[in-house]
């Protein structure tokens, strides 16, 4: 188990769709432990494997009392309800914007041992499931912003004092970071 560096915006892996997991082995379990420990250290709500440089469809989450991981997630939406709320990302230190997401989600996937699992989420947990699954598809939260807001976000990112080679600092984050 190890705390890994979190890749920051500008790293190409964040824009690359992750590959499905095919081997539910010791190496996958080690990856899940690293994701979980790195997420705990960063004090975030979610962390996808590409954010630590691994192009596999796996993420860890910690939203309130809900903690775990999901391998090869597939999302379903039981209704059309939406929510608007502040969102940040461990790969964008200090950057926060309101993002429209679905209010309720059902995430289906597998544990690190290949057992099927389903996570029913609402509000923050639903937001986290969507945010992390986006990471696995190479989609970033800034891609969900309207054009004007995305321009503001890109200006803020350009003016930030971090780049794709800087290791994330936990003191920069809050518990609403995915």
Automatic annotation (TrEMBL):
Keywords (A to Z) from UniProt: Hydrolase, Iron, Metal-binding, Protein biosynthesis
Active site: 132
Cofactor note: Binds 1 Fe(2+) ion.
Pfam family membership, one: Pep_deformylase
Gene Ontology annotations of biological process type: translation
Gene3D superfamilies to which the protein is assigned, alphabetical: Peptide deformylase
Reaction catalysis annotation: N-terminal N-formyl-L-methionyl-[peptide] + H2O = N-terminal L-methionyl-[peptide] + formate
Record-listed Fe cation binding positions: 89, 131, 135
GO molecular function, one term: peptide deformylase activity
EC number: 3.5.1.88
Cofactor requirements of the protein: Fe(2+)
Family according to the record: Belongs to the polypeptide deformylase family.
Free-text function comment from the UniProt entry: Removes the formyl group from the N-terminal Met of newly synthesized proteins. Requires at least a dipeptide for an efficient rate of reaction. N-terminal L-methionine is a prerequisite for activity but the enzyme has broad specificity at other positions.
Annotated protein name in UniProt: Peptide deformylase
Species whose genome carries this gene: Trebonia kvetii
UniProt gene name: def
